[in-house]
Design brief:
Layout lengths: L12 E6 L1 H5 L5 H9 L4 E9 L9 E11 L15 E3 L26 E14 L15 H29 L4 H15 L19 H8 L5 H4 L4 H7 L14 E5 L2 H4 L8 H12 L1
Length: about 280
């Protein structure tokens, strides 16, 4: 039996690759299996936030909350009011349109790639396939608690900015009446009286747009660990925070995971997080 940890630890960066065949084998569906066999999954770079269950030896997989790392600035999404600056550079990368200070992994194991960014709104839930040999963390690149908190705060800031942009677009398309405008202004003053600028705790207090399409877009905002730590795992699953609204575990990506980044992924081969979610749709459709 290996002396290595039987599951990876939170706050590690990792390379993952989906296993489409393993995700559909239990369905006993020959067409789904044939379709899965045709998929050629890419390798993705992500950051493990925390394990979503009680890990113990002998499990076939281990559940984690994670967020994707992308090559370059974030891909824009005009429909969801997501702009390229909604990301965070990872040192040694320092460039950012809003001059954000980069996230700095622990110095004993520097981040090996340049021009990489934490992309906002890429939170997901994954199932890491157990490795009989265990997971060697001696080569792992990791964030400490302070840097991980900074990362979450930037994510929260982007969620607030996105929500404000969605509200502005809604008001442009559906101008409020004079009475509605006065009531909205009064509510803003009441809610934020005494605050020079919105804090992390204020982000979820803002009123939501009323149009169905705007509510759907805002509903897609990733909910971060800082705002969900008081909820149980079962509750979060029911809410669909990690992807599938039904909380169906079978919809969560089943992945192989490696902690030695450079040994399993070259900089030029880092795939876009957009492709990660496209792969999930291909497998679970």
């Amino acid at each position: 039996m290996s002396d290595l940890p039987f599951a990876p630890s939170p706050w590690n960066y990792a390379v993952v690759q989906m296993d489409p065949v393993s995700m559909v084998q239990h369905l006993d569906d020959s067409q789904a299996l044939e379709a899965a066999e045709r998929i050629q999954p890419k390798a993705y770079l992500l950051h493990l936030s925390w394990d979503s269950g009680l890990p113990f030896p002998g499990k076939p997989w281990y559940g984690f909350s994670a967020s994707l790392v992308g090559p370059g600035l974030r891909a824009p999404d005009e429909e969801r009011c997501i702009s390229p600056d909604m990301c965070i550079p990872i040192f040694p990368t320092i460039a950012h349109p809003r001059s954000r200070d980069p996230i700095r992994p622990k110095p004993e194991r520097p981040f090996p790639y340049d021009d990489c960014y934490h992309w906002s709104f890429t939170d997901t839930r994954i199932r890491v396939i157990a490795n009989p040999e265990g997971f060697d963390e001696s080569t792992a690149v990791k964030l400490d608690a302070r840097e991980d908190t900074r990362r979450e705060r930037f994510f929260a800031e982007d969620a607030y900015r996105q929500q404000e942009a969605l509200k502005a677009r809604h008001h442009h398309r559906h101008p409020p009446t004079s009475r509605e405008a006065r009531e909205a202004t009064a509510q803003e003053v009441s809610t934020f009286a005494g605050h020079g600028s919105p804090s992390d705790d204020d982000y979820h207090l803002r009123s939501q747009p009323e149009a169905e399409d705007e509510r759907a877009s805002i509903g897609s905002i990733s909910t971060h660990e800082s705002s969900t730590s008081s909820l149980s795992n079962d509750t979060m699953t029911e809410m669909g925070i990690f992807g599938d609204p039904s909380g169906n575990i079978e919809m969560q990506p089943l992945v192989h995971l490696w902690l030695d980044l450079e040994a399993h992924l070259k900089r030029e081969d880092i795939a876009s997080p957009v492709q990660f979610f496209e792969e999930i749709e291909m497998i679970t459709a």
